[in-house]
Automatic annotation (TrEMBL):
Descriptive protein name: Wax synthase domain-containing protein
Membrane topology: Multi-pass membrane protein
Lineage: Eukaryota, Viridiplantae, Streptophyta, Embryophyta, Tracheophyta
Signal peptide feature range: 1-25
Record keyword Glycosyltransferase present: no
Biological processes, Gene Ontology terms: lipid metabolic process
Localization: Membrane
GO molecular function, one term: O-acyltransferase activity
Organism, as annotated: Rhododendron simsii (Sims's rhododendron)
Ranges annotated as spanning the membrane: 61-78, 90-112, 172-193, 213-233
Amino acid sequence: MTSFFIAWLSNFKLLLLAFDKGSLSDPTLSPPQFLAIGCFPIRKTEPKNLRQESKRGYKQVWNYALKGLLLAAFVQIYHFSEHIHPKVILVIYSFHLYILLELMLAAVAALVRATLGLQLEPQFNEPYLSTSLQDFWGNRWNMMVSCALRLTVYDPTLSAWTRIVGRESASLPAVLATFMVSAVMHELMFYYLGRKRHNWEITWYRLPPVISTPLTVGFVMVTGFWLFFPPFLRCKPDARAFKEYAILGAFVKDIVLGGAVKLRHFNGILTSQ
């Protein structure tokens, strides 16, 4: 957790502060608030309707209680891991990690709210309800990191590439740069956790063939229909091909018929002799 809080979020917040951006640039922050926001995955937000906040807090209590029970159930399941398929254990690990992070970050947010009186936004927004990858990464999963990456990487890269290739095409290099920085920061966190040499497994991740093959073939087919076939068909290759086939057929026919005529003539000469 320290590697996540300090090495990633705090550094990115200080980087934004250097450019007078981000949550730390708020001049109304007191020193304790500044320190808390700089060290923990929290961000100050405007106070909302108290009635809505009360209802939301009531729902969150039941939500966290249910997730706490699931976490306890996962811990019990691990005692029987030798009888469970390893892939199933990995799926359980995924839910375990998400629930653990949400409960831990919620506890930190509640502590800061109680001690410093800050209105905080949630770190997760039910990522299991995501309708797309964009919805997952941009709106539901670890929103504090998404916000930090958007301000420190995506927006500057988008602005720079917009001057070169235009607004519509600039989003692709901005997204690639954002995911690359995220991958490097994950490598750094795992280095702090294990103190082992990097193998860049996260940054240069290779998909298994069952996924990479359909993606590769699909990409080639889509780009082929998009980039190759339109100019190809404008040249009317079908009409040209049929014309060439007719010429080739006539040529072969002449050769065959001519050969047959010569063969009959030669046979006739032999018969007469």
